[in-house]
């Protein structure tokens, strides 16, 4: 199966920028989505097709994807952004998720 | 607004079959625009895609579970279902149903249902 690798944790101060990476073979050739999951809640789609934000997702969330790495960027994170983040991509009609990254807003 | 709701037993005995249903409101599951997925998450761990019902196309399953999984649909009730056979403690997890939108995104999720495999 297709493997996606994320760092287990990322810490950031509110005034900074958080970058969460997702790595996979030739990932840049695939569409990547990102999901936010707060404790006890269902995942929420925050980025799809590498860079697009669904309606209702704040502009501080953005995404990029090139080469073997996709990145979720949160500019000026807020306390409410503290959550687990998962990347996801499709390979040969099978969906794969990264292991998840816990974002801590200090 | 699209709503998904999982239902089924919260306890399953080892070696038996786990059976869950997802009821969809706010849209037809037979619309070819979307596909309908099962995803699970063991406590404290990450997400694992189980498989999908894709109207007018073949279903797809996670290769690691394919031999034990069947996803079916009941269009008259606007539901789709998961059957997972020969369960073990490793199948204990929160099970989510989710709508998939081309080309790749899971844009609506149910609240999830906790299934525990225990004798």
Keywords:
heterodimer, A: 106 residues, mainly beta, six-stranded mixed β-sheet, three-stranded antiparallel β-sheet, B: 119 residues, seven-stranded mixed β-sheet, four-stranded antiparallel β-sheet, 0% helix, 52% strand
What's the topology here?
The complex is a heterodimer of chains A (106) and B (119).
Chain A (H helix, E strand, L loop, with lengths): L8 E4 L4 E7 L8 E6 L6 E4 L13 E6 L2 E7 L7 E9 L2 E4 L3 E5 L1
Parallel strand pairs in A: 1-9
Antiparallel strand pairs in A: 2-6, 3-4, 3-7, 5-6, 7-8, 7-9
Chain B lengths: L2 E5 L3 E2 L5 E8 L8 E8 L6 E6 L6 E2 L7 E6 L4 E6 L8 E9 L3 E5 L3 E5 L2
Parallel strand pairs in B: 2-11
Antiparallel strand pairs in B: 1-3, 3-8, 4-5, 4-9, 5-6, 7-8, 9-10, 9-11
3D architecture notes:
The complex is a heterodimer of chains A (106) and B (119). Chain A is built from no helices and nine strands. Chain A has strands at residues 9-12, 17-23, 32-37, 44-47, 61-66, 69-75, 83-91, 94-97, 101-105. In chain A, strands 1, 3, 4, 7, 8 and 9 form a six-stranded mixed beta sheet that branches. In chain A, a hairpin with a 2-residue loop joins strand 7 (83-91) and strand 8 (94-97). Chain B is built from no helices and eleven strands. Chain B has strands at residues 3-7, 11-12, 18-25, 34-41, 48-53, 60-61, 69-74, 79-84, 93-101, 105-109, 113-117. In chain B, the strands form two sheets. In chain B, strands 2, 4, 5, 6, 9, 10 and 11 form a seven-stranded mixed beta sheet that branches. In chain B, a hairpin with a 3-residue loop joins strand 9 and strand 10. Chain B is globular and about 40 Å long. Chains A and B meet through strand 3, strand 7 and strand 8 of A and strand 5 and strand 10 of B.
Order of helices and strands of chain A: EEEEEEEEE
Note the overall shape of chain A. Answer: globular
Q: How many individual β-strands of chain B?
A: 11
Low-confidence stretches of chain A: none
Helix percentage of chain A: under 10%
Rg of chain B, Å, rounded: 13 Å
Radius of gyration of chain A: 13 Å
β-strand percent of chain B reads over 45%
Q: What is the CA–CA distance across the termini of chain A?
A: 35 Å
Average pLDDT of chain A: 96
Mean pLDDT across residues of chain B: 95
Biggest interchain interface, per-side counts: A-B, 25 and 21 residues
Q: What is the structural class of chain B? A: mainly beta
Helix content of chain B: under 10%
Number of strands of chain A: 9
Please tell me what the overall shape of chain B is.
Answer: globular
The biggest beta sheet of chain A is recorded as:
6 strands, mixed
Number of helices of chain A: 0
Q: What is the terminal-to-terminal distance of chain B?
A: 39 Å
Number of helical elements of chain B:
0
Q: Beta-strand percentage of chain A?
A: over 45%
């Amino acid at each position: 199966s297709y493997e996606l690798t994320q760092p287990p944790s990322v810490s950031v101060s509110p005034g900074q920028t958080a970058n969460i990476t997702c790595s996979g073979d030739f990932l840049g050739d695939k569409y990547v989505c990102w999901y936010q999951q707060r404790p006890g809640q269902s995942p929420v789609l925050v980025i799809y097709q590498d860079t697009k934000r669904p309606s209702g997702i704040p502009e501080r969330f953005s995404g990029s994807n090139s080469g073997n790495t996709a990145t979720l960027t949160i500019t000026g994170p807020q306390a409410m952004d503290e959550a687990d983040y998962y990347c996801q991509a499709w390979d040969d009609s099978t969906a794969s998720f990264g292991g998840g990254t816990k974002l801590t807003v200090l | 607004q699209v709503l998904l709701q999982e239902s089924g037993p919260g306890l399953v005995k080892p070696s038996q079959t786990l059976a869950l249903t997802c009821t969809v409101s706010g849209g037809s599951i037979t619309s070819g625009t979307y596909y309908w997925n099962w995803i699970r998450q063991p406590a404290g761990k990450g997400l694992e895609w189980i498989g999908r019902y894709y109207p007018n196309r073949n279903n797809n399953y996670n290769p690691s579970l394919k031999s034990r999984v069947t996803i079916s649909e009941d269009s008259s009730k606007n539901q789709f279902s998961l059957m997972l056979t020969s369960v073990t403690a490793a199948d204990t997890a929160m099970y989510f149903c989710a709508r998939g939108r081309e080309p790749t995104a899971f844009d609506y999720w149910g609240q999830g249902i906790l299934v525990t495999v225990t004798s």
